[in-house]
Amino acid sequence: KEPEATIVEMLKDVTSYEGEDAVFECRLSRETTQDAQWFLGDVPLQSNEMNEIRVQGTRHTLILRKVTLEDCGPISFKVGQHTSAA
């Protein structure tokens, strides 16, 4: 069983205007095959035309494209037992 990854660089709050992209990033202690999941409020996010989810090594990035007022709310990133929110 692989050792658990922890979040070493937490999410930062982002303010953006309607129509802009909002970018959230956090970094893990190591690369992992553990399930990492982004949420807007309680809703799990998937990569699609509105959301881009990227993983580059230990860096996990969420890009919310052309945000609207409906996108306003807490963003959280979870991996294993660890959570970061902005």
Cα separation of the termini: 30 Å
Strand proportion, as a percent range, falls in 35-45%
Name of the CATH first level: Mainly Beta
Sketch the major β-sheet: 4 strands, antiparallel
Task: Give helix % range.
Answer: under 10%
The stretches of 5 or more residues where confidence is low (pLDDT under 50) are none
Domain Ig-like: 3-86
InterPro entries: Ig-like_dom, Ig-like_dom_sf, Ig-like_fold, Ig_I-set, Obscurin/Obscurin-like_Reg
GO cellular component, one term: cytoplasm
Pfam family, one: I-set
Any descriptors?
4-stranded antiparallel β-sheet, mainly beta, Immunoglobulin-like, 86 residues, 8 strands, elongated
Write the layout of secondary structure elements.
Layout: E1 7-9, E2 22-28, E3 36-40, E4 43-44, E5 51-56, E6 59-64, E7 75-79, E8 82-85
Q: What features would you describe in this structure?
A:
The protein has a single domain (7-79), classed as Immunoglobulin-like, CATH 2.60.40. The chain starts with 6 loop residues before the first strand and ends with a strand. The chain has no helices and 8 strands. Strand 7 (75-79) and strand 8 form a beta hairpin. The protein is an all-beta fold and 86 residues long. The strands form 2 sheets. A 4-stranded antiparallel sheet has the order 1-2-6-5, with no helix packed on it. The protein has a 4-stranded antiparallel sheet with strand order 4-3-7-8, with no helix packed on it. InterPro entries: Ig-like_dom, Ig-like_dom_sf, Ig-like_fold, Ig_I-set, Obscurin/Obscurin-like_Reg. Keywords: Cytoplasm, Disulfide bond, Phosphoprotein. This is OBSCN protein.
